[in-house]
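Hi there, hope your week has been kind to you so far. No rush at all, and the record is pasted right below.
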Amino acid sequence: MKIYFANGLFSQADFEFNARFVQALRTALPELDIYLPQENAAINDKNAYADARMIAQADTDQVLAADLMIAVLDGPVIDAGVASEIGVAYAEHIPILGLYTDSRQQGAANQQKLAALQTIAENQFHYMNLYTVGLIKLNGSIYNNQDELVADLKNRLATA
């Protein structure tokens, strides 16, 4: 199964998370062929040069060649490149597994947090663009931890 791994890659934190999680996937599920954009030096070596068309073409080709996408949704907003990649995958009916680990999704039953929603600028929860979330849910699932996402991958491999 060919996987496209979509996440921001410009901060050290994202770069290292991507490398660690993809390596864990490759170790646990060696039958997966995972494309991690940051490993494509032709377009992502930031000491070199790749223009917008080169980047768009290279990553779009990889999305279209994938059987499934893993999209990390964490951050103040979904990374713009990831949102674009989700749109391409959705349009081509490529299943998308979203990983959303933001701790602000916790406490949904906390009455103080719910009451705070009635006060301007006191939203205790994180907002994600519902259109992008909807594209994922129409063609996949969203998980709030890596273990559940990996379990879904294992199920998909077992039934493939």
Summary: Residues 12-28 form the longest helix (17 residues). The helical segments are 12-28, 41-44, 52-65, 80-91, 111-116, 130-138, 146-159. The chain is about 50% helix and 15% strand. The two ends are 9 Å apart (CA to CA).
